[in-house]
TrEMBL record:
UniProt xrefs under PROSITE patterns: RIESKE
Protein family membership: Belongs to the bacterial ring-hydroxylating dioxygenase ferredoxin component family.
Cofactor(s) the record lists: [2Fe-2S] cluster
SUPFAM superfamilies reported in the protein's UniProt record: ISP domain (SSF50022)
InterPro entries registered for this protein in UniProt: DUF2231_TM, Rieske_2Fe-2S, Rieske_2Fe-2S_sf
Domain Rieske: 183-286
Superkingdom of origin organism: Bacteria
Keywords assigned by UniProt, alphabetized: 2Fe-2S, Iron, Iron-sulfur, Metal-binding
Protein name: Rieske 2Fe-2S domain-containing protein
GO MF: 2 iron, 2 sulfur cluster binding; metal ion binding; monooxygenase activity; oxidoreductase activity, acting on paired donors, with incorporation or reduction of molecular oxygen
Amino acid sequence: MSLFGVLDRLSEVPSFDKQLEAARTAVNKVLRPKAFKDVLHGTWLGHPLHPILAMVPVGTWLSAGLLDLVPATRPAATAMIGAGVAGSVPAALAGAADWSEQDDAVRRLGGLHAVSNVAALGLYVGSLVARGKGNGTLGRVLSYSGLLVASGSAAVGGHMSYAQSSGANHAVVEARQLTTDWIDLGPLDDLPEGRPTRRTGEGQGTPVALVVVRRGLTVDAFIDACAHVGGPLSDGTVENVRGSDCLVCPWHGSAFSLDNGEPRRGPTASAQEKLEVKFEAGRVFGRLPNRHTPK
Ligand code: FES
């Protein structure tokens, strides 16, 4: 089994689920109000914030490792370590916010990621203390140990993002499958007012679920799988969120503007894939803009 196969196995072990659930409850209590949590998700940015903030400890600690190789640049290494310790706090808060809205398998690996990061942080703080007391050798041993642990933790985080798709836009995957031809979404009169309705489009071998919302003579159509982790938006609701009529996901409450698919409330940081719509002889047709056409 490959190293990363071990991580997949670990993500299936439920032994610490009770502790992880307690941690999730604590995270949700601490990261209030919801608007603060959305800032940490990156909903306002249209991109997850955690990987951006994580660049600070990763970059500074790696730089410190290089600066420590040359005696003349060791004071700069200490400064880098201090910056990384400070930068790890917002990165951890953003990671915790994202982690709390994921499924069990991702949360299990996230627990390992968090414990490793805390261990790395402890080693770096110990390194700063040792350096402050003039024990440079111990300081360097501790910081190189921290770099090793942080690198392992980064690999776990990467596995969560890439293999478990924890930070991916799940609607894009579906959108890539969908035909770029016009799709018949049925008669306008069959669509209920202000209620998400499921429709199906032709995909590459399998049908792709769509969700359609009618507001008077306006119809908005989207990929049904929520950008966050694929929840069925057609089982959701239409609500006014922060001044916009939004399609709200039934799984974690992400809200997407009906006008343009932009997120108005997290945990999603991505916009929902929206179809263009036209009317012909009382019927509604939708089509995905061409950017996902298979080559
Ligand atoms: S799947 Fe999480 S908000 Fe939709």
